[in-house]
UniProtKB/TrEMBL annotation:
Natural source organism: Novosphingobium sediminis
Cofactor(s) listed in the protein's UniProt record: FAD
Highest classification ranks of the organism: Bacteria, Pseudomonadati, Pseudomonadota, Alphaproteobacteria, Sphingomonadales
Entry protein name: Oxidoreductase
Keyword flag Flavoprotein: yes
Coiled-coil region list: none
Gene3D superfamilies in alphabetical order: 3.30.465.10, 3.30.70.2190, 3.30.70.2740, Uridine Diphospho-n-acetylenolpyruvylglucosamine Reductase, domain 2, Vanillyl-alcohol Oxidase, Chain A, domain 4
InterPro entries, A to Z: FAD-bd_oxidored_4_C (IPR004113), FAD-bd_PCMH (IPR016166), FAD-bd_PCMH-like_sf (IPR036318), FAD-bd_PCMH_sub1 (IPR016167), FAD-bd_PCMH_sub2 (IPR016169), FAD-linked_Oxase-like_C (IPR016164), FAD-oxidored/transferase_4 (IPR051264), Oxid_FAD_bind_N (IPR006094)
PANTHER family named in the record: D-2-HYDROXYGLUTARATE DEHYDROGENASE, MITOCHONDRIAL (PTHR43716:SF1)
Pfam families attached to this UniProt entry: FAD-oxidase_C, FAD_binding_4
Keywords, sorted A to Z: FAD, Flavoprotein, Oxidoreductase
Annotated FAD-binding PCMH-type domain residues: 33-212
Length: 455
């Protein structure tokens, strides 16, 4: 029997895609990159996946795990000699517990589905990102996804209580901890969180929830200097209800503002724009505190223009300004994207250094700069002409060389994937690389899982 037939025998007809069903999928959210390998395996349970991995292990068959394929680091790309394992059928929300504020979910559940199920029980799942309708819990654990509210509730890592995973040889690891405090030996789940699928395939998880918030206040403000921006961040951090501090520089804001007046809440031409969000449990008091905060930063001259959302509709509209990734795709393609972390005081100097470095090599340089400044994290999209993608290695080298001068991190939340793999050794201590190599080799000695990802 060939491999496809053997896998079909384990997972049934619904569990295996071949031919056009494989080629019609993309492994990248922004460009069409079909899997090069012939099969997508869709197990319906941990047991099925374990059996599939035992078979792959016997055959030395490399696999690439697929969640929602919204990852932007090339981590889900499938080579010609690899097969994809999709968690899409393991999408059951098994439990939402209002007493212990947790959810037990299959890895294929989307972030949005978990948010909605939590909301129906008076709870809130705080990880929130533009791709939440498609990105899965498994994928967000594998990439340790961040998103818009990290400065209040942390990254995905801080919201995972426990998980279950299948190793390269089919071994099932159940670390489905439900307790906040548990120091019983190694915290095994950490080996899988942020490992980008190189240590095991996450199949289920226990996620932390918080009580549903009663209030959400959102303001969109403009500042006229870098110092005002940093001072504003410092002042906003003192708001106990602060949940997001999202900055958009003019190169980004002008792009999104041009797409329609509903995405231009303030006049253009300022130094930077900030979406500030606060969420709390007392509607009246929270609104008063937020308005008093806005008034004080305006009176003190930190903010030069501002709009305060007066309804849920306006809140959604203001967030749509910040979530304008599709404008970048439409107006700036092809582009190289990045999500670096660095000291907030260095952001502008870093972006200037990247721009001037690129200008030495390319006549056309366009940038779009925005991000989660409250978490030290900015997204920088770069376009250097029609052959930007062919120039990607050089563009990234210029950007990451600039980053090293400021001691920044190569990736804040998207991960290394395949795209940034070559740069990893320059940004990680040799001792760290040794530990990472030892962990990976111990769990997947044959190198079957996401072979070309990370290092
Ligand atoms: C419009 C847009 C906005 C985004 N905004 C953010 C943001 O604000 N913050 C952020 O952090 N990211 C963001 N992302 C990136 C992306 O959504 C996240 O990385 C997300 O966590 C990926 O989840 P996924 O299910 O799509 O994973 P995939 O893209 O399918 O996979 C990502 C990586 O994880 C591995 N993987 C997937 N599932 C599993 C599993 N069950 N077990 C083991 N390994 C697995 C894959 O092999 C791959 O290496 C954004 C993407 C888009 C398109």
């Amino acid at each position: 029997m060939d491999l496809a037939a053997e896998i079909r025998a384990l997972v049934g007809d619904r569990g295996l895609l071949t031919g056009d069903d494989v080629r019609m999928r993309s492994c990248d959210p922004f460009r069409n990159v079909p899997p090069e390998g012939p099969l997508i395996v869709r197990p319906a349970s941990t047991e099925e996946l374990s059996a599939v991995m035992r078979l792959c292990h016997e055959r030395g068959q490399c696999v690439v795990t697929h969640g929602g394929r919204t990852g932007v680091a090339g981590g889900a790309f499938v080579g010609a000699d690899e097969i994809a394992i999709s968690l899409e059928r393991m999408n059951v929300i098994e439990e939402i517990c209002p007493v212990t504020s947790l959810a037990v979910v299959g890895a294929g559940v989307t972030i949005e589905a978990l948010q909605n199920a939590a909301a129906a029980q008076g709870l809130f799942y705080p990880i929130d990102l533009g791709a939440k309708g498609t990105a899965t819990i498994g994928g967000s654990i594998a990439t340790n996804a961040g998103g818009n509210r990290v400065l209040r509730w942390g990254m995905t890592r801080q919201n995972v209580l426990g998980l279950e995973a299948v190793l390269a040889d089919g071994t099932v690891v159940s670390a489905m901890n439900r307790l906040i405090k548990n120091n019983t030996g190694y915290d095994v789940k950490q080996v899988f969180i942020g490992a980008e699928g190189t240590t095991g395939i996450v199949t289920r998880a226990v996620m932390r929830l918080v009580p549903a918030l009663a209030s959400q206040s959102v303001a969109f403000v403009a500042v006229d200097s870098e110092q005002a921006l940093l001072d504003l961040l410092g002042r906003a951090r003192k708001l106990p209800t602060l949940s997001a501090f999202e900055v958009m520089w003019p190169d980004y804001y002008d792009l999104v503002a041009a797409s329609g007046t509903d995405r231009r809440p303030l006049a253009q031409g300022r130094h930077a724009y900030v979406l500030i969000e606060a969420m709390g449990y007392d509607r009246e008091l929270d609104a008063q505190v937020f308005e008093a905060f806005l008034e004080s930063v305006y009176t003190d001259g930190l903010v030069v223009d501002a709009v305060l959302a007066a309804s849920d509709k306006q809140i959604a509209e203001l967030w749509r300004v910040r979530e304008g990734a599709e404008c970048i795709v439409r107006e700036m393609s092809p582009f190289v994207s990045s999500d670096v972390s660095l000291d907030v005081r260095d952001v502008s100097r870093f972006v200037d250094l990247v721009r001037s470095g690129l200008a030495e090599h390319y006549p056309i340089v366009r940038t779009a700069t925005f991000g989660h400044l409250g978490d030290n994290n900015i997204h920088l999209a770069l376009h250097v002409g029609p052959d930007t993608l062919a120039q990607e290695p050089n563009v990234e080298r210029i950007m990451f060389d600039a980053l090293r001068t400021f001691g920044g991190a190569l990736t804040a939340e998207h991960g290394i994937g395949q795209f940034k793999r070559a740069f990893l050794p320059d940004h990680k201590h040799p001792g760290e690389m040794t530990v990472m190599g030892a962990v990976r080799a111990a769990l997947d000695p044959a190198g079957l899982l996401n072979r070309d990802v990370l290092f």
